[in-house]
Amino acid sequence: MTRQVEAHHYCGHLNEDMRQCLIYDRPDADARLIGLEYIVTEELFLTLPDTEKPMWHSHEYEVKSGVLFLPGVPGPVERKDLEKVAKTYGKTIHFWQVDRGDELPLGLPQVMMALTRDGQLYPSLAKDVESRYSVSFEKERANRAYMEGPTHGIHPKANAAGIGLKTVLREIECKPSVQSESVPRVFV
Q1: Taking Cα atoms as reference points, which of 86, 75, 59, 70 lies closest to residue 139?
Q2: Which alpha helices (H) appear in 86-177, and where do they start and end?
């Protein structure tokens, strides 16, 4: 894992099996919208084609390690929701690569992975976040030790199946359909 960003998720529940989240680089009024994440239950994840599964990451480690937290939410309420999140999978797409210093959302959107094991989080980022939010990842790890991940374990194809993924752009010829010689254009 070569790049890491602080990500603030603002989520809505589409239904019991799916949440959809807008991701900002900070919680302030001038925050930049940098991406989105779809979060699904294990049951829904298991219905995905095998070719799709590597683009999804598990949430068990993020939750149980304490690095995923809900600022301002009381501990017992937070833990009740995180018990559910620990069993889910997410697909995250970042449009704005703020960690590169981009002033605008440049380049291709990127599928982003999550932390999945100890030693991946930059110590400087961890220390900064813990200080600003008055949270201890180690204390939260202890508080969440009882939580369980996906019922069937983390799927072997999740988390990029252990390899990196890179979005690439390729040109293709766009021919009009056989039924129509011209392509109607509508500008709104």
Answers
A1: 75
A2: 123-133, 137-143
Which residue stretches of 11-166 are H helix?
42-45, 60-65, 75-85, 123-133, 137-143
Query: What backbone torsions phi and psi does residue 153 show, to the nearest 5 degrees?
Result: 80, 170
Joined tokens for residue 161? 């199946």
32/15 Cα distance (integer angstroms): 27
How many alpha carbons fall within 13 Å on the CB side of residue 85?
A: 27
Q: Where are the beta strands (DSSP E) in the chain?
A: 8-15, 18-24, 33-40, 57-58, 89-94, 110-112
pTM, two decimal places: 0.87
The pLDDT tens digits of the residues spanning 72-129 come to 999 899 999 999 999 999 999 999 999 999 999 999 998 888 999 999 999 999 999 9
Q: How many residues does the chain have?
A: 188
157: amino acid identity, one letter = K
